[in-house]
Amino acid sequence: MKKRFLIALFVVALVFQFTGCEKDTSAQNTGLVQGKGQAKYVFLFVADGMAPSQFNATEYYLASKDNVTNYNINRLNFTQFPVAGLTNTHDYGSLITDSASAGTAFASGRKTLSSMINVDPRDGRTPYKSIAEYAQEAGMKIGIVSTVTLTHATPAAFYGKTANRNNTEGSDTEPVGLAQQLVESGFDYFAGGWIVPNSTNNDKHLDTARRLGYTVTRTPAAFNALNRNSGKVIALAERVQDSGAMHYEIDRRSTDLSLVDFTRKGIELLDNPNGFFMMVEAGKIDWAGHANDAGALIHDMLIFDKALELAIDFYNRHPKETLIVVIGDHETGGMGVGWAGTAGIPSESGVSANLGMGYSMYFDKIAKQTRSYVAFDEEIINPYRERVTNPSQRRIEDLYSDILESFGIDLRPASLNVSEFQRNQIEIAFRRSMEQPVETPDEGWRVFHGSYEPLSVKLTQVMNQSAGIGWTSYSHTATPVASFAYGIHQEIFGGYYDNTDIFFKLASAMNFKVD
Ligand SMILES: [Zn+2]
């Protein structure tokens, strides 16, 4: 008996040696489960674009709301989890990952190229199986929730396979696009933004979904009426903001469904004796990071953390069988908590700047923001362009009150609210937004405002800098992200490891045998 066991071990070792291991060699800490028990109810909360700066800024913001001179942090729910880890995020072809290769890494445990989802980077075709597909095979119910479109990279990483993340509709080389893959996934609950940004195509995919047996809801009333007899569900936000995504939390009306609503209903519908795997993504933390809009980012962080409370409540009812994991997929924007020029900026809060250049922060300024950069584009800049059609008649003075109301930036001549340097930056941005034809984009242009509306991005940057937040990029960065865990087998998520290890840790906690 013993001898046979040893021979078997030897064969396994040989096979392992000769088949090689495609997994990244830097992934050494798969932290497999030692103890007994299986994670039966698994929540994976993904904050797209979140690294320590993003949650740390949110915690400073909360503290500053209590007291502007409160040099402290108010902790979020997930930063109080008992286990924290750090994860590096490079992909198969770059130190800076995109959300497609990042999603593939934690959903399927493999490195691939940016823009690819769950396919081998060497042929763009050989599929990888996701943790949600393993869970589905094991008889668990599957829920996918996102504030952005449901075919966006992060949600798609749990059901999709494609060499091109933008292939939602099918192409010559890949006839079955991500939207069709979604409705054919058989997953139990999809909720959040539209399936795809295009309204006509979105309707078409929902028709297919209904034919395949999904209950589809598009209004809060229909959504609230869903119950455990509703079968498989696709629940969409009634109003969408940009590219088929839900509104930024800062712009959401009280009558709009929120990430909290979609999470609560998901738990209600997915709860069953065979367990569930539920992914909840706050996708616009990333979008706000791309646009350098800390106010929009922080409010989306807060609703993400609020949705997490529902998972914690569920854990409290099933503590021996529930695992909650919170991760970021990569950092976005090169967000820094601290900015070189902050000490030189006057602050009406009266907080002393005598700590020296760049050591001061005024997070109370962020509380004055009432709109995201997108809402400012749509509600202020575009209507102004339509109202004053002749570019030579457009004056920044016309927007002073809107800018003050939206971002707390007072540009009136007597105001001490902004420095001369900042005022000049805003005026340059205004001219770029309003004068036509615009200059040809060059390097300076890209650094100044990326691909965004110049005035909006400059206003958020100036307000952020006054508060003490600096940005280095309009893209992702390679800085490590954090992971947090609470519940059964939480301990395996500690340490500094590769993003592909998230998949192996989840599989181990759920007791799945994976390649
Ligand atoms: Zn991402």
Key descriptive features of the protein:
515 residues, ten-stranded mixed sheet, two-stranded antiparallel ribbon, 12% strand, single chain, alpha/beta, disordered N terminus, binds zinc ion
Helix percentage = 25-40%
Bound small-molecule species: zinc ion
Assess the beta-strand content as a share of residues: 5-15%
Question: What's the average pLDDT?
Answer: 90
User: Which residue ranges are poorly predicted, with pLDDT under 50 across at least 5 consecutive positions?
Assistant: 1-29, 349-356
Question: What's the arrangement of strands in the largest beta sheet?
Answer: 5-6-4-3-7-1-8-13-2-14
Radius of gyration: 24 Å
Largest sheet: 10 strands, mixed
Termini separation comes to: 27 Å
Count of strand segments: 14
Subunit arrangement of the protein: single chain
- Overall shape: it is globular
Count the helices. How many? 17
How does the helix and strand content classify structurally? Answer: alpha/beta
What does this structure look like?
The protein is α/β, with parallel strands linked by helices and 515 residues long. Helices cover 37% and strands 12% of the residues. It has 17 helices and 14 strands. The longest helix has 24 residues. The N terminus is likely disordered. The structure holds zinc ion (ZN). Zinc ion binds next to helix 3.
